TrEMBL record:
One of its GO terms (biological process) is centriole-centriole cohesion. One of its GO terms (cellular component) is centrosome. Residues 1-17 have a biased composition (Basic and acidic residues). This is CNTLN protein. Gene3D superfamilies: 1.10.287.1490. InterPro entries: CNTLN. The keyword Coiled coil applies. Residues 1-34 are annotated as: Disordered. The keyword Thylakoid does not apply. Residues 59-188 form a coiled coil. Keywords: Coiled coil.
Length: 347
């Protein structure tokens, strides 16, 4: 374009020079160089025109290429944005797959552990099965030996049975003979039985009388044991009450020593009771003593029930009954000793 503009400027200069040459002839003729140059200018102008047309066509083609490339770039940008989205999605997918892979690896580890434990169990079961099969084989061998022994025993028994059948036929013939003899014996025995029946009826009457006597004796023995236990129980209770009274008397004496007579009379007059009643009131409310008496009462009750069970029990029960009565007698002995010692101290 710049060359084109230069050439156009030169053409304008030439036209201007030709016009000025026509107006004034007095001006000197142009030089040869200028003529040559003027001749060459149209050619150069043509060349430049052709060059410009070529350049414009190339520019147009280049513009078209640029547009195509821009469109290609847009397409590529759209593809790249799409690929980026796909890439982010694939990254998320990869992360999910990694987490799934980790979980699967952990699951695989646990499954491998369970598989190993199951394999160990299967091996143990196989060994047990093998051992059981071996034991069953041994038992089968033993059973086969026993079977052969039993077969031998069966054959022996069969032979013995045949022999016994022969004996049985002989015995049957003998039985017929004995039956005939038995009928004769039965008639004789029936006569003897009538005589024995009369004798047994008399003996039964005697035995019934003896049985009634023994039952009466047993009842007497039971009444004796019951009265004995009651008497023991009452005597033990009396001793306990005496011991309590002796203890209370000792406490009253100690209370009398501790308190002055005037204070006791004043307290009795206020309560409107006698001095002895006041001592009893002072001694009342002993929870330990009441608990002890309650426990003793329960023990006595259990002892009486034990005696009753022994009397109702089956024979022999004499040793157990003796132990129970001796236990109560020993308790009575201890209470007697305690009471005598208390009475000595109170005196």
């Amino acid at each position: 374009q710049q060359e084109k503009e230069d050439l156009q400027g030169k053409l304008k200069l030439r036209e201007h020079l030709s016009q000025t040459a026509g107006k004034s002839e007095a001006t000197p003729a142009p030089s040869k160089n200028i003529d040559l140059e003027m001749k060459q200018l149209p050619c150069k102008l043509k060349n430049s025109n052709t060059e410009t047309t070529k350049q414009s066509t190339t520019i147009k083609s280049l513009k078209n290429q640029v547009q195509e490339k821009e469109e290609r770039i847009r397409e590529l940008q759209a593809k790249t944005s799409k690929l980026e989205r796909d890439l982010t999605m694939k990254r998320h997918l990869i992360e999910d797959l990694r987490s799934h892979l980790k979980a699967n690896q952990e699951n695989e580890k646990t499954s491998n552990e369970t598989l190993e434990s199951l394999e160990r169990k299967v091996k143990a079961l196989a060994e047990d099965k093998k051992a059981s099969i071996d034991s069953l084989k041994q038992r089968l061998n033993v059973a086969m030996k026993e079977k052969s022994q039993y077969e031998q025993m069966y054959h022996k028994a069969k032979d013995e049975l045949e022999k016994k059948d022969l004996k049985l036929t002989k015995l049957e013939s003998k039985m017929i003979e004995t039956e005939c003899a038995m009928t004769d014996l039965e008639t004789a025995a029936s006569q003897q039985l009538h005589g024995l029946a009369k004798q047994s009826a008399q003996t039964l009457e005697i035995l019934q009388k003896e049985l009634l006597l023994t039952s009466d004796k047993v009842e007497e023995f039971k009444t004796f044991v019951k009265t004995l236990t009651r008497e023991l129980h009452h005597s033990v209770q009396e001793l306990r009450t005496k011991i309590k009274l002796a203890k209370k008397m000792g406490g009253i004496k100690a209370c009398k020593k501790g308190l002055s007579q005037e204070c006791l009379k004043l307290a009795a007059s206020i309560l409107n009771v006698s001095t002895t009643d006041l001592y009893e009131i002072l001694q009342e409310g002993d929870d330990e003593e009441t608990a002890k008496t309650k426990m003793e009462f329960e023990k006595d009750k259990e002892w009486l029930q034990h005696i009753q069970k022994l009397l109702e029990a089956q024979f022999p029960f004499a040793s157990y009954l003796m132990d129970a009565i001796l236990e109560k007698l020993n308790e009575k002995k201890k209470l007697v000793e305690e009471y005598s010692s208390l009475m000595k101290h109170t005196v």
